[in-house]
Amino acid sequence: MTKEYTLPTMDIKIPFNKPFIVGKELFNIAQAVITNAHLAGDGYYTRLCQTWLEEHLYCKKTLLTHSCTAGLEMAAILCNIAPGDEIIMPSYTFVSTANAFVLRGGIPVFVDIRPDTLNMDETKIEAVITPKTRAIVPVHYAGNACAMDEIMDIAAEHQLFVIEDAAQALLSTYKGKHLGTIGDFGAISFHETKNIISGEGGALLVNRDRFIERAEIIWEKGTNRKQFFRGEVDKYTWVDIGSSYLPGELTAAFLHAQFEQAEQINARRAQIFNLYYESLCPLEEQNLIRMPAFDPAVSSHNGHLFYIITNTPETRSRLIEFLKNKGIYAIFHYMPLHSSPGGKRYGRPGGPLTHTEDLSERLVRLPLFYEMTDADVGIVIDAIKKFFQNR
């Protein structure tokens, strides 16, 4: 799961991110309180959101959660992760990707990323598989697809689970399939920094029929409450481990209004992405920066984020400070998990992590949010060009 930084207290004219209202969010909230009179989980809007996801992603079963982290934790339970089990994942990701499995006693095994997409390098996976390996967790960085055919083939050969961390990838595709729906499970995020938002929020995508019944039980605190309300049992009781993974109905009410405008939101983010890309191409041609790499013949991305990679860590630091002084909030992204105190304590590297260490020190994320204007984008672009001209 991926989550970004919040706006610092400084004189910022162009923030990194800005939450927004695009349609009936506040109307839906009032409707939930006044008309529906239901604020707890699994209400009218929760069910609408789940139906929307199932219909638009072609997913077998979706369970709305209070965060993408919760979706990953549910997936770890469904995979029966036990102490000592190993889970292969990139180090270049948010801590929730690892924490969900560490909470079950699992051991993250960190593999390097590809230098082009910054996704987990599928060619590094097979070498770190051991008899203790239980799952692979591809993270679709920037909403750009991992090499899912190769990953699924490896998983099938070694009988491993695949849990897609698609936190950033809602409505992105790989060979016509929505990210999050290819593996056994997928988890997506509606954190306020994502394309479609509810403040906090997420969903678990269950892509195999055999896991649906247990997923509902885990979602409902380990009870068979869903079966009771469908009339399948005459009372509900505690039958398995689980937790309170449901979001409140106000979160779902806000989220459903965003779903209704999802196409419009992603289209605007794509416009901003393309404006950045086209305008900064001359700097890439001069080998001053590198920009995101995508293969439109294989996958489509959702315009979630735009980054540039500088030639040195020092250049990155100076650029971020330069933009800050211009009132523009740009950020670096993840500190690699394998080098963190938690990563050293709970996980282990699966070989050299050369690209992870190198690129994480040179990447800059630029402001990108739905209400960002072309003029705002132009200010950021002009500032970046001026920085490199001065150099």
Structure notes:
By secondary structure, this protein is α/β, with parallel strands linked by helices. The chain has 2 domains: 25-259, Type I PLP-dependent aspartate aminotransferase-like (Major domain) (Aspartate Aminotransferase, domain 2), CATH 3.40.640.10; 262-390, Alpha-Beta Complex (Aspartate Aminotransferase, domain 1). It is 37% helix and 13% strand. The protein has 13 helices and 14 strands. Strands 1-9-8-5-4-2-3-13 form an 8-stranded mixed beta sheet, with helices on both faces. The protein has a 3-stranded antiparallel beta sheet with strand order 7-6-11, with no helix packed on it. Helix 2 packs parallel to helix 8. The chain is globular and about 75 Å long.
